[in-house]
Specification:
Strand order of the largest sheet: 1-2
Shape: elongated
Helix content: 40-55%
Structural class: mainly alpha
Radius of gyration: 18 Å
Number of helices: 4
Number of strands: 2
Largest sheet: 2 strands, parallel
Order of helices and strands: HHHEHE
Strand content: 5-15%
């Protein structure tokens, strides 16, 4: 595994390919976005979601992503969600990911 990773990094540094062949080459460390979802919007602290807790919203979002994308949760390696209102959002994202069935080996951040 370490040899594969090192070879991948070295292949990125060597100028052996250029143009279209360079950007269409598949690498084991390629990022794959399976689905992008937007949570609902409402007026800050006044709208229809004012009483909805962040942990429930994130949990519902992750469950919906797993259901809609039809991916095996065991294949998820990283979860990144944006939040500006809660300093503990990273902990909430982590707990919601575990509750949604994503393995503890997956990274989760906000």
């Amino acid at each position: 595994m370490a040899t594969e990773r090192l070879n991948s990094i070295l292949s990125h540094l060597s100028p052996s390919k250029s143009g279209l062949s360079a950007i269409t080459q598949k690498n084991p460390d390629d990022v794959v976005i399976t689905l992008a979802v937007r949570t609902p919007l409402s007026k800050g602290f006044k709208g229809g979601l004012k009483d909805t807790k962040l942990d429930y919203l994130v949990y519902s979002l992750l469950k919906k992503v797993i259901d809609k994308s039809n991916i095996d949760p065991q294949m998820v390696e990283d979860i990144c969600l944006g939040n500006v209102n809660d300093g503990k959002a990273a902990y909430i994202v982590r707990a919601a990911a575990l509750a949604a069935g994503i393995p503890n080996t997956a990274a989760a951040s906000s």
